[in-house]
Amino acid sequence: MSVIVRWAPSPTGRIHLGNARPALLNWFFARRHGGKYVLRMDDTDLARSTRDFADGIEEDLAWLGVTPDFLVRQSERTALYDAARDRLIAAGRLYPCYETEEELDRKRARARLLGKPPIYDRAALALTDEDRARLEAEGRKPHWRFRLDGRPVQFADLIKGAQTVNTGSMSDPVLIRADGSYLYTLPSVVDDIDLGITHVIRGEDHVSNTGTQIEIFEALGGTVPTFAHHNLLTDAQGQGFSKRLGSQSIADFRAEGYEPLAIAIMATLTGTSLPIEPYDGLDAIAAVLDFSMISHGAARFDPAELDGLNARLLHTMPYAAAAPRLSALGLEGEAMWLLLRENLARFADIAEWAKLLTGPIEPVVAPEDAEFIALAKALLPPEPWDDTTWGQWTNALKTATGRKGKTLFLPLRMALTGRHDGPELKSLLVLLGRKACLDRLP
Q1: Burial grade of 268 (CB within 10 A; 0-12, 13-18, 19 or more)
Q2: Which GO terms describe its molecular function (predicted)?
Q3: Which of 67, 325, 364, 412 is the most exposed place for a label (fewest CB within 10 A)?
Q4: Are 193 and 223 in contact (CB under 8 A)?
Q5: Other CB atoms within 10 A of residue 14 CB
Q6: Which has the higher per-residue pLDDT, 442 or 11?
Q7: Per-residue pLDDT at 216
């Protein structure tokens, strides 16, 4: 069987880490099995969906390294949904209901008072043609519910194992609003059938929907896909990510200079048995991530862990990968990159660190170190320089002054770089050259 998966965001805002999790887990599964990846824009909410948000989702996916094989928009597929609607009506599975929201609220409240579950009582099924005509003459427009079988629906979940959803304890779901627009459920099932989706990989908050959707698949004569419901990503406080709550978006992380691979690793490997560590790329993750490794507990995102991972990715980034980005900053040189990369928290930091080589820098010499630095300048070895030069120089200074450790090395670092931290001085010295060092030593 050829694997076909889909990720189906609603273009009602920019995607966040919680959205990126299923987007990437679907991608990994498709890559691992040589399958296809469908990006489906669930844009039937015309009041909130925008093309700008849809374009932003594509941009964010591309930044993360995901390239869909197909892109479909639900707003362009209404004819398919209309045909499915008509088939379900003809089969007696979709029926019109005329209660207002206030009337439904009263029914639910009455059921609770009687100690009964607040599910729909299917009163609309008892309406005659005359009843419906009278209600429509009053100006009421029907919403349409799917008549559930009301049975235990069983399915094998690739992550959570054997699952049972009893649709007998559920209200018949509304599939079409009174204004004729479709809710999520029917278009989703119709698209999965039409696109040949084999695996539906999504958050565990959708488990309870699966019983209803399986019944709709069967009612339409479609092949039921295999489901996999993963744990949800939460923030450091245990709060779920949400567009409505203004959770930090993928675009925000990009603007803050994070590496896309760091975001991808955090979004997917958090809450699994795999370590949060650098990988060579998305394919390397796909090769090792199995759904059996996904925890059944919450996956809590730690911003500090992201910062550490981002730095580790930069510290091991080969020059070939960094070169185009360095060029965009007006920088070049493999030796420079290999020397400075271990000091980076964000890639853009390289522009500041490169000043250690290109200048300008402001040497810092404490009054008590002035005589020592003057001697250091006098003892600076002649060129040519190599990786032994630093040792020759500091050994001569140690012999002449008796200084060692921090009292020897820190004043030299402050005089040559103007800061107390930075790259290994042994290598920096060679790249600077004798003239630049003489110019920096007062």
Answers
A1: buried
A2: ATP binding; glutamate-tRNA ligase activity; tRNA binding
A3: 67
A4: yes
A5: 19
A6: 11
A7: 98
Q: What is the reported pLDDT for 59? A: 97
Q: How many other CB atoms are there within 10 angstroms of residue 10's CB atom? A: 20
Length of the chain: 442
pLDDT for 70 equals: 95
Question: Contact, 32 vs 69, CB < 8 A?
Answer: no
Question: In the prediction, which pLDDT does 242 show?
Answer: 77
Res 243 pLDDT > 90: no
Q: Is the pLDDT of residue 132 over 90?
A: yes
Residue at token pair 């039937």: 44
Q: What is the pLDDT of residues 133-163, one digit of tens each?
A: 999 999 999 999 999 999 999 999 999 999 9
> Residue 243, annotated ligand binder?
yes
State how far the Cα of 123 lies from the Cα of 129, in Å rounded to an integer. Answer: 14
User: What amino acid is encoded at 51 in this protein?
Assistant: R
Domain ranges of the chain: 1-98+141-316, 319-358, 367-440
| 186-197 exposure pattern, b = at least 16 Cβ within 10 A, e = fewer | bbbbbbbbebeb
CA-CA distance, 77 to 55, in Å (whole number)?
Answer: 19
* CATH code of the domain made up of 367-440: 1.10.10.350
Q: In CATH, what number does 1-98+141-316 get?
A: 3.40.50.620
Strands (E), 204-360: 226-230, 233-234, 299-300
What one-character-per-residue DSSP string does 174-233 give?
EEE-TTS-B-SHHHHHHHHHHHT--EEEEEGGGHHHHHHHHHHHHHTTPPPPEEEEEPPE
